[in-house]
Amino acid sequence: MYGDPATIRKILTELGDTWAVVGLSNNRDRAAYGVARVLQQFGKRVIPVHPKAETVHGEPGYASLEAIPFKVDVVDVFVNSELAGPVADQAVAVGADAVWFQLGVVNEAAYERTRKAGLSMVMDRCPAIEIPAL
User: Fold this and answer.
1) pTM
2) Nearest C-alpha neighbor of 126 from the set 108, 104, 111
3) Which residues pair with 99 in a beta bridge?
4) Residues 127/100, Cβ–Cβ less than 8 Å
5) Which of 58, 119, 120, 124 has its CA 20 to 30 A from that of 7?
C-alpha cells in the first residue's frame, strides 16, 4: 500500500546510490546496522545519521541530515513513527530525491507531504528485503 513495485524499483535502481540512514549507529543489535550493511553490499554508500555521529561501516556519521555536506539521494528512516514526520520534512529541505520509512514506521501525513513535495516515498517496507529481489 505504501510502496508500489515501480516506486521501490525506482528508488533502489534509479535515484542514486547515496543513502542517509537516520538512526544508524554502531549498535549491532539494531536493525539499521544490518540493513546498512546489505545496502553497502549492493553498492550503496551509506551515511550514518545519529546524534552520536559515529563512523559506521567505514563511513563517517553526522548528527543530522542538515550537517551532511553533500547531496544524499535517499533518506532511510529508522526512527519511531512520531519522529519520522520531521525527518521526512528535513529530507525535503535538504533536497533528497526519496524517503524510505522502514518496517513498522508509518506516518501517513508525512507520506502525503513528502509525495506532494515531489519525492518518491516508500513506507513500512525494508530495502534489505526488497533489493535482493531485483
Assistant:
1) 0.96
2) 104
3) 75, 121
4) yes
5) 58
- Helix H, strand E, coil C: the string for the chain is CCCCHHHHHHHHHCCCCEEEEECCCCCCCCHHHHHHHHHHHCCCEEEEECCCCCCECCECCECCHHHCCCCCCEEEECCCHHHHHHHHHHHHHHCCCEEEECCCCCCHHHHHHHHHCCCEEECCCCHHHHHHHC
Contact 121, 7 (CB under 8 A): yes
Q: Average of pLDDT values for 55-69?
A: 97
Q: Which amino acid is at 41?
A: Q
pLDDT digits (tens, 9 = 90+) for 98-130: 999 999 999 999 999 999 999 999 999 999 999
Question: Distances from the Cα of 121 to the Cαs of 25, 38, 42, in angstroms?
Answer: 23, 20, 20
Residue with cell 550503496: 44
39 in Cβ contact with 23 (< 8 Å): no
Q: Which residues contact 121 (CB under 8 A, 6 or more apart)?
A: 2, 3, 7, 88, 98, 99, 100, 101, 111, 114, 115
